[in-house]
Specification:
The protein is mainly β. It has helices spanning 3-18, 275-280, 335-339, and strands spanning 35-44, 47-55, 66-72, 78-86, 103-107, 110-118, 125-132, 158-161, 167-171, 177-181, 188-194, 202-211, 214-221, 227-233, 241-247, 259-263, 266-273, 289-295, 326-327, 330-331, 333-334, 347-351, 355-359, 366-373, 379-387, 393-399, 406-412, 422-427, 434-442, 451-459. The structure holds beta-L-arabinofuranose.
């Protein structure tokens, strides 16, 4: 790394930290390559599947066309799986906007994604359901019409299957409604019920779940800004007793739609803020970013109020194994928000052949993968799948910071096209134990260097991947 580049990186980190926008040690917001909101985490087979709504980059007010999926097994490194459903999934709906807050659930090996969308006629808010055989989608519109018909405020579905097999769908703004879903999860029986015991300051964004025989209703509360309130009940249909604030409203975020899970022995609350938007502009635009906090329940099941979303986020659960294929779009942080010039950070793209990959890589960009376990002096090589139609560049591997010890550098020359993928390998040495791994992208050209699909480290004596 040149001295000039080191100075530039350090200066940017200090300047950004001082400006209180996004610091170099940040972990919140957890996704930096897209604007994401309305977190809907699902724990399935040991992995957190985080379904999100997606604010388009040109948004001033809401501009939302699809739903995305990210996964993690350590709560800090998140893998982008791209778009799993979009307004095109529901061709009878308004196609220009309104892909709002989703929630997904698994039942008997099928996955159901409930989404609020709009129909052309007023009142326009409806709730639709997409079905897939896989948590990764794509979700299909099996009904061909809304699950919950149009009414004002039919938004923000939250779904839960109780121990006795009865499934419930709650939703609504400004009122809270529920219906009992049938076992097929795509139809319901009985009346749609308006909740009389709507919890104090309820606005929207309900998140319904059960823990230790207690039912919880977390929700976006107050307006505006929104905080996160919650109520409890001994019955899935209430009455709901207001219990307090999980997070107080804060002027740094006008909305705050909750998603709550237990994972690997800890409890987590997801929400969102506008940190990345405000790193780019002073103007409030509906470009949100999902945030994460760890918390504990009190012995009576109540929840103490959490501080506002920290920049540091949550501790890593375990470490990342680099000796298996790791998607390049698995990251804890990337350079865009750190430099305050998000448009020059790396981005993700998706195609039918290889799925999601990292793109928009320019000289000086980096990806941080947190807590990579290199083991005991066994690392010998680094292999990456890359594609380039330019002169390419290189991937430098650094430990613990972008200018930390360099353990290897992979030259990437042209492969003959941005989608002509080749695996390339270089030697790596000097890494043992767990470290944050930084991929620092270098190249002479102004403009894009290469695309990056996946990587893997190999141990001494291991057969090289082809
Ligand atoms: O994201 C669009 C809407 O804003 C959601 O449906 C609400 O919960 C609020 O977050």
């Amino acid at each position: 790394m040149t001295r000039l580049y080191k100075l530039r990186t350090l200066a940017l980190c200090v300047a950004v930290a001082l400006s209180e926008s996004v610091s170099c040690g940040a972990q919140n917001p957890i996704i930096q390559t897209n604007f994401t909101a309305d977190p809907a985490p699902l724990v399935y087979n040991g992995t957190v599947y985080l379904y999100t709504s997606h604010d388009e980059e040109d948004a001033t007010g809401f501009h939302m066309l699809n739903w995305k999926l990210y996964t993690s097994t350590d709560m800090v490194n998140w893998t982008d799986h791209g778009t799993v459903a979009s307004l095109k999934t529901f061709p009878w709906a308004v196609q220009s906007n309104d892909a709002w807050a989703p929630q997904a659930i698994e039942r008997n090996g099928k996955f159901y994604l409930y989404v609020p969308i709009s129909v052309p006629e007023r009142p326009k808010n409806v709730i639709a359901v997409g079905v897939s055989d896989s948590p990764f989608g794509p979700f299909k519109d099996v009904l061909g019409h809304p699950l919950i018909d149009k009414a004002i405020g039919n938004i923000d579905p939250t779904v839960f299957v109780d121990d006795d097999g009865q499934a419930y769908l709650y939703w609504g703004n400004p009122n809270l409604w529920y219906v009992k879903l049938n076992r097929d999860m795509i139809s319901y029986s009985g009346d749609i019920v308006k909740v009389d015991s709507k919890p104090k300051n309820y606005q929207e964004g309900p998140w319904f779940y059960k823990r230790n025989s207690r039912y919880y209703m977390a929700y976006a509360s107050h307006c505006c800004p929104e905080g996160i309130g919650y109520a409890m009940s001994s019955n899935p249909t209430g009455p709901w007793e207001y219990k307090g604030m999980i997070m107080d409203p804060d002027s740094r975020s006008s909305g705050n739609h909750p998603g709550i899970i237990d994972y690997k022995g800890s409890s987590y609350a997801f929400g969102f803020n506008y940190t990345l938007n405000f790193a780019l502009t002073d103007v409030h635009r509906e470009r949100r970013s999902i945030t994460l906090a760890k918390f504990s329940y009190n012995s009576d099941g109540t929840i103490s109020t959490l501080p506002w979303w920290s920049k540091e986020g949550v501790p890593q659960v375990g470490t990342l194994n680099p000796f298996v294929r790791v998607e390049a779009e698995t990251m804890a942080w990337e350079s865009g928000p750190t430099t305050g010039v998000w448009t020059t950070g790396v981005r993700t793209a998706q195609d039918d052949k290889i799925g999601v990959y990292v793109t928009n890589i320019t000289n000086g960009d980096f990806i941080k993968v947190r807590g990579v376990d290199f083991g005991a002096n066994q690392v010998s090589s680094f292999t990456a799948s890359v594609a380039s139609a330019s002169n390419g560049g290189s991937i430098e591997l650094h430990l613990d910071s972008v200018d930390g010890p360099k353990i290897g550098s992979l030259p990437v020359s042209s492969t003959g096209g941005w989608n002509k993928w080749k695996t390339k390998t270089t030697t790596v040495s000097g890494a043992t134990g767990a470290h944050d791994l930084y991929f620092l992208f270098r190249g002479d050209v102004t403009g894009q260097l290469f695309n990056f699909d996946y990587w893997k480290l190999s141990k001494k004596g291991a057969k090289q991947p082809k």
